[in-house]
């Protein structure tokens, strides 16, 4: 299929590459042109303005946004609604709040423009292993766009979740669960670090061991192993952990629907606390976010002094 991708960051760039490998025609646009130039060298068609991007697409046009949640998406949609035509489709693949999907879909519908929300998980590893994709919108649009989802995802790695907002809602809950899992791993390794056996333990070996048939084996634990191989005690990382929104929204939804979600809620609050005090569990969380998503880490004070 032919589609445009707006936003060539950590996720958008690799998604464009995976689509090109799947023989889709990709028109690429990024606010800074150097990213566009980079993907053009790999087979994409470059566009250096939104109007140029729309001109290079054949109706019905498909435009996939990979932008940070919030004002950036609204700004682009305000421009696109006057450039696109009746029957064109906009896909939001970022980490958007599902209630914003509903508002934006209604705004675009006034111009006859279709809207699809796609929650995407896979981080910086998606190019190699594929992107787990959760889709919301009309079933007709999902079926029309399915060749794109099939290329991006691993086998059985995409799902039609329901009407507008459903894809991002499922992705939101996914990330809330992720918060809790990461917190449990972080706390476990902090207990090990505070134990009388800390000096004799190699945490990369422990993480590797736990992935050999134990009940807590997971991809996150594989990433923990890789992080510990790079820095056995995570001494170069400060335990400062950001939250990108989905955990807050998950907790807010739990409150609105009176669902008890203490693990997810406390894991979110722990991230707030991490910005005031440096603990070993927070170092593990920061390292895991760097490993799966390429998120920046804050250097420890000792690392800064050594630079």
Structure, briefly:
This protein has 307 residues and is of the alpha/beta class.
What does this structure look like?
The protein has 307 residues and is of the alpha/beta class. Helices cover 52% and strands 12% of the residues. The protein has 14 helices and eight strands. An eight-stranded mixed beta sheet has the order 3-2-1-4-5-6-7-8, with helices on both faces. α4 (71-80) links the parallel β4 (62-65) and β5. α8 (166-193) crosses α12 (262-274), α8 (166-193) crosses α13 (280-293) and α10 (219-230) crosses α13 (280-293). The longest helix has 28 residues, at 166-193. The protein is globular and about 65 Å long.
Write the layout of secondary structure elements.
Elements: E1 2-6, H1 10-21, E2 25-29, H2 33-40, E3 45-46, H3 50-56, E4 62-65, H4 71-80, E5 89-92, H5 98-109, E6 114-121, H6 126-129, E7 132-136, H7 139-152, E8 158-162, H8 166-193, H9 203-210, H10 219-230, H11 246-256, H12 262-274, H13 280-293, H14 301-306
Parallel strand pairs: 1-2, 1-4, 2-3, 4-5, 5-6, 7-8
Antiparallel strand pairs: 6-7
Any descriptors?
307 residues; alpha/beta; 8-stranded mixed sheet; 14 helices; globular
């Amino acid at each position: 299929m032919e589609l445009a991708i707006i936003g060539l960051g950590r996720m958008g760039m690799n998604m464009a590459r995976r689509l090109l490998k799947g023989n889709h025609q990709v028109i690429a646009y990024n606010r800074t042109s150097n990213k566009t130039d980079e993907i053009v060298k790999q087979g994409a068609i470059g566009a250096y303005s939104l109007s140029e991007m729309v001109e290079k697409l054949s109706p019905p046009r498909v435009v996939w946004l990979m932008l940070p949640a919030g004002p950036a998406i609204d700004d682009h949609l305000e421009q696109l609604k006057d450039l696109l035509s009746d029957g064109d489709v906009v896909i939001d693949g970022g980490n958007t709040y599902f209630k914003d999907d509903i508002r934006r879909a209604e705004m675009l519908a006034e111009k006859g423009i279709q809207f699809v929300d796609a929650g995407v998980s896979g981080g910086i590893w998606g190019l190699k292993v594929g992107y787990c994709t959760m889709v919301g919108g009309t079933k007709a649009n999902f079926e029309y766009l399915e060749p794109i989802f099939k290329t991006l995802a691993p086998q059985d790695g995409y799902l039609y979740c329901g009407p507008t907002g459903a894809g991002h809602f499922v992705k939101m809950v996914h990330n809330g669960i992720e918060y809790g899992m990461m917190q449990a791993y972080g706390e476990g390794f902090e207990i090990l670090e505070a134990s009388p056996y800390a000096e004799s333990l190699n945490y990369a070996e422990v993480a590797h061991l736990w992935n050999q048939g134990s009940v807590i084996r997971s991809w996150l634990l594989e990433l923990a192993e890789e992080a510990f191989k790079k820095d056995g005690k995570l001494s170069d990382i400060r335990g400062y952990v950001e939250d990108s929104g989905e955990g807050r929204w998950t907790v807010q939804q739990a409150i609105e629907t009176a669902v008890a979600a203490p693990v997810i809620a406390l894991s979110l609050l722990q991230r707030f606390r991490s910005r005031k005090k440096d603990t070993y569990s927070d170092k593990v969380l920061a390292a895991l976010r760097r490993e799966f998503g390429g998120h920046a880490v804050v250097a420890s004070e000792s690392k800064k002094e050594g630079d």
